[in-house]
From TrEMBL:
Record key words, sorted: Disulfide bond
Gene3D superfamilies in the cross-refs: 2.40.128.620
CDD domains according to UniProt: LDLa
Protein name: Prohormone-4
Length: 160
């Protein structure tokens, strides 16, 4: 028997190997023996942009603007292409799986001051306050991309 799941049941439960339909993910009833299909991190990630897209976006910002550009959003721990936070891929995964701003802070061991800063950045995006983003040094030419990216997180409950 093949290890691949049938196209109508493409999600393979990591614990027991059972294949389930995507519609059964995060539906409130566990279908995997270990309940993985109802895991809060999985369910949050399912609503967010794909991790690859987030990682690619962060990489493109760093490539265009230098290895310390993301300090404007995430504070001094975002130096050297996010190395102190575990690197771009780790931050992308954490942004995808963190239900809220507070979860993100806990997962990245960021301090409370930076959490307030990050929350204010997200609030500015939610309220359409591009002046706040400009005050961080984000140029007009970058505002659209940064706003689009952050809105995706805000719209999936990151500020809740």
């Amino acid at each position: 028997m093949s290890d691949a799941c049938h196209p109508y049941e493409p999600f393979k439960c990591p614990g027991d190997g059972a294949c389930i339909s995507i519609q059964y993910l995060c539906d409130g009833a566990p279908d995997c023996l270990d309940g993985y299909d109802e895991d809060s991190r999985l369910c949050t990630a399912a609503k967010r942009p794909p991790v690859e897209e987030t990682s690619s976006f962060l990489q493109s910002l760093l490539a265009s603007h230098g290895p310390n550009y993301l300090e404007k959003l995430f504070g001094s721990k975002a130096r050297d292409a996010l190395a102190p936070l575990g690197g771009v891929d780790k931050v992308a995964i954490t942004l995808s799986e963190s239900q809220t701003n507070e979860d993100f802070r806990s997962s990245t061991a960021s301090d409370e001051i930076r959490l307030e800063h990050l929350r204010s950045v997200f609030m500015a995006v939610e309220n359409g306050d591009l002046g706040m983003l400009k005050s961080l040094g984000i140029k007009d030419s970058e505002l659209g991309d940064v706003k689009f990216f952050l809105e995706k997180l805000v719209n999936t409950g990151f500020l809740d």
